[in-house]
Design goal:
The structure is a single chain. This protein is α/β, with parallel strands linked by helices and about 350 residues long. It has 14 helices and eight strands. Strands 1, 2, 3, 4, 5, 6, 7 and 8 form an eight-stranded mixed β-sheet that branches. A hairpin with a 7-residue loop joins strand 7 and strand 8. The radius of gyration is 26 Å and the shape is elongated.
Length: about 350
């Protein structure tokens, strides 16, 4: 391929909706600046698009061709997807397809919590390999610490793999971030209502005061953790969110999907729990008279006792909240998980 340096280029970034699109937009300007430094002039466009999966369960590669057919001025197409990708059992950061003038970048493996500089470097490295240009110094400039490209062979493409130690944790954390746990808050409104109603019961029930005063702090913490765990398990089971490896599917990393689902829901429930503790604590300060509490629990009614009551009451409320979410037809957490969103990428779903 001819060296394009000095002639100017146009790059299109196809990004999955959500965090991928936001990430692509955040690096649009610095990426254009870096490309201009090498190619004299450059244009970078970000196009939100749900990237599909082919019938062979691999990333659909007809999309870059469609983009270049619609606009002959496009020199490279970068696909930024939230789907985790692997090669040889190792998470794959990026893969270059020179014949299609395209590259696929797995946003969770790049690290959604990483700086914009890291994503810009990955994009730049992909563009240089797609166009077959750039000096050795340019390639070194955009190299990632602890990550090296494997060169293309007759049977494989050029790939940038994650580190064998940090790759999996980075991928799982990235998947949780792309799941956006905070999006579950509106969908758990029925759970919050049921949890608050049950938790408020602890403010008026003196046996809860006595029990919370009698339990040690470690035991109270274990009760809270158990309550949150039970709610997460119940939401997964009742919602059918656990992915089962029933077929050979190289694009579906079932272990990654299930771990990210568990962590995503746990963060959702943790947020619900902390919110309840704060609300019940404040309500307890207003409702429960300190002298009356002392006469019941036979201990000083300090702020720690109010917090113990709030913690214990919230644990009861969280369990009730899980049941409340089950009986609410509007509570649908399936789109929070990668496995269910992947079904939307398959050819039969895209045709509907």
């Amino acid at each position: 391929m001819q060296n394009r340096a000095g002639h100017g280029i146009t790059v299109v970034i196809l990004a999955d909706p959500g965090r991928c699109t936001l990430g692509a937009q955040s690096v649009q300007e610095p990426l254009q600046e870096e490309l201009t430094r090498i190619f004299c002039s450059a244009s970078v466009r970000v196009q939100p698009e749900m990237l599909g999966i082919s019938e062979h369960n691999t990333l659909e590669m007809s999309t870059p061709g469609s983009v270049r057919s619609a606009d002959r001025d496009v020199d490279a197409v970068l696909m930024l997807t939230e789907m985790p990708r692997r090669s040889g059992g190792i998470p794959l950061i990026a893969e270059v397809f020179p014949e299609q003038h395209a590259a696929a970048v797995a946003y969770p493996v790049v690290g959604v919590m990483s700086s914009r500089k890291r994503l810009t470097s990955v994009f730049m490295s992909c563009v240089l390999r797609i166009l077959g240009t750039g000096t050795p110094e340019d390639h070194d400039r955009y190299a990632l610490p602890w990550n090296e490209w494997t060169e293309a062979t007759e049977h494989s493409t050029a790939q940038l793999k994650a580190h064998t130690i940090t790759g999996v944790p980075r991928t799982i954390i990235g998947m949780v971030a792309t799941n956006a746990p905070w999006r579950a808050a509106p969908r758990l409104s029925s759970a919050l209502a049921a949890a608050c109603a049950t938790g408020a019961f602890g403010i008026f029930y003196s046996n809860i005061w006595e029990m919370s005063a009698a339990l040690s702090t470690p035991r109270l913490l274990m009760i809270g953790l158990l309550a949150m765990t039970l709610m997460v398990v119940w939401l997964i089971v009742s919602g059918g969110l656990w992915e089962r490896a029933e077929r050979e599917d190289p694009t579906t990393v079932h272990l990654y999907y299930n771990l990210s689902t568990v962590l995503t829901l746990f963060l959702c429930v943790l947020g619900l729990y902390v919110t309840m503790v704060v609300l019940i604590f404040l309500a307890g300060l207003v409702v429960i008279d300190p002298d009356y509490m002392e006469s019941v629990i036979k201990q000083p009614a300090d702020l720690g006792r109010y917090l113990d009551i709030a913690w214990m009451s919230a644990a009861l409320g969280v369990v009730a909240g899980g049941l409340g979410a089950t009986f609410d037809d509007d509570t649908d957490l399936r789109t929070l998980t990668h496995g269910r969103r992947e079904l939307q990428r398959r050819p039969e779903a895209l045709q509907d």
